From TrEMBL:
It comes from Cannabis sativa. This is L-ascorbate oxidase-like protein. The keyword Glycoprotein applies. Residues 1-91, 174-315 form the Plastocyanin-like domain. It comes from the Eukaryota. GO terms for molecular function: copper ion binding; oxidoreductase activity. Keywords: Glycoprotein. PANTHER family: MULTI-COPPER OXIDASE (PTHR11709), OS01G0816700 PROTEIN (PTHR11709:SF27). Belongs to the multicopper oxidase family. InterPro entries: Cu-oxidase_2nd, Cu-oxidase_C, Cu-oxidase_fam, Cupredoxin.
């Protein structure tokens, strides 16, 4: 780094399972972006980055010209694993960085939760000019549907499976969107085999293995609650959408928790962590027609069933909402020899 210059670093956790803490020896980081959204530019000594999350920070080269360590270490693991890299000032004298690495946060996940609560959307930046981000008042929209998703683990025929509301997702030989587009979905899967509010019957002991597809009304404003009863931290990603991360809190969710929601400047993002024995609440409008994957970012969990699909159909079948399938698209399964359905129109 050149002395006096400011650099942008983008930090992404592309791991399979473990949360990381990232820090730069003797340097502060100014957070400016998170998963596509500009944030209030708070200063941090270190950042917890959970699986699937990305941050952008500004770092100014205003320290003694020498070499410094970047450090990424695992969080919430019995054994801490550490990765290091070196950044060097252009006018630095030769020599290794100080072996005294900056310390990671200690204790349980309360520190990480408090850091999450410090993240705020920058309401005066981004979006189509001249409209600032804050011109969209998501906190004033009536919620039309609340979906609570509870993750769990169990064994089926002696093999480990992960599930959502008692259903462990399995892929079908005919892709879900193809079956839906060719109007043969009823031959491939059933919609809404999980309830919006899981009951006592949806226990890990009664786990079902099946394609897990939720039918969602186009352009509805929806509240999704992730409830984690496990001892491990979870991370969730919703494809095709950004959502407002309204709240994370300990214990089970109840409607009274809405009093703790950030309804003004929660960051618009697409990945959210859920701490052990805790919940997370997100808000979004399902205005993007298609078949979208909601999944655990922990690769083992997703692969073994902890995912589902959300079907968002536009009743107008309009090209303004969704494109037609390309004429040369590969088809497989039961739709392989079916004729194309009537195309979407303007």
């Amino acid at each position: 780094m050149k002395p006096g210059k400011t650099y942008k670093y983008r930090i992404c956790n592309v791991g399979l399972k473990t949360s990381l803490n990232f820090r730069i020896q003797n340097h502060l980081m100014k957070l400016v972006e998170m998963e596509g959204s500009h944030t209030v530019q708070n200063i941090y000594e270190s950042l917890d980055v959970h699986v699937g999350q990305c941050f952008s920070v500004l770092v100014t080269a205003d320290k003694e010209p020498k070499a410094y360590y970047m450090v990424a270490s695992t969080r919430f693991t019995k054994k801490v694993l550490t990765g290091k890299a070196i950044i060097t000032y252009t006018n630095a004298k030769r020599g290794p960085p100080s072996p005294q690495l900056p310390a990671a946060p200690v204790g349980n996940w309360a520190w990480s939760l408090n850091q999450f609560r410090s993240f705020r959307w920058n309401l005066t930046a981004s979006a189509a000019r001249p409209n600032p981000q804050g011109s969209y008042h998501y906190g004033k929209i009536n919620i039309t549907r609340t979906i609570k998703l509870v993750n769990s683990a169990s064994r089926v025929n002696g093999k480990l499976r992960y599930s959502i509301n008692g259903v462990s997702h399995v892929d079908t030989s005919t892709p879900l969107k193809l079956a839906e587009y060719f109007r043969v979905a009823n031959k491939v899967f059933k919609y809404d085999i999980i309830k919006d509010e899981p009951t006592a019957e949806d226990t890990p002991q009664k786990l079902i293995m099946a394609p897990n597809v939720i039918n969602q009304t186009f352009r509805n404003f929806v509240e999704i609650i992730f409830e984690n009863h496990e001892k491990s931290l979870q991370s969730w990603h919703l494809a095709g959408y950004s959502f407002f991360a309204a709240a994370i809190g300990p214990g089970k969710w109840s409607p009274e928790q809405r009093r703790n929601y950030n309804l003004l400047d929660a960051v618009s993002r697409h990945t959210i962590q859920v701490f052990p024995k805790s919940y997370a609440a997100i808000l979004l409008t399902f205005d993007n027609a298609g078949m979208w994957n909601l999944r655990s970012e922990l690769t083992e969990n997703r692969y073994l069933g902890q995912q589902l699909y959300i079907s968002v159909l536009s009743p107008a079948r309009s090209l303004r909402d969704e494109y037609n399938i390309p004429d040369n698209a590969l088809r497989c399964g039961i739709v392989k020899k079916l004729p194309f359905p009537p195309p979407y129109t303007i």
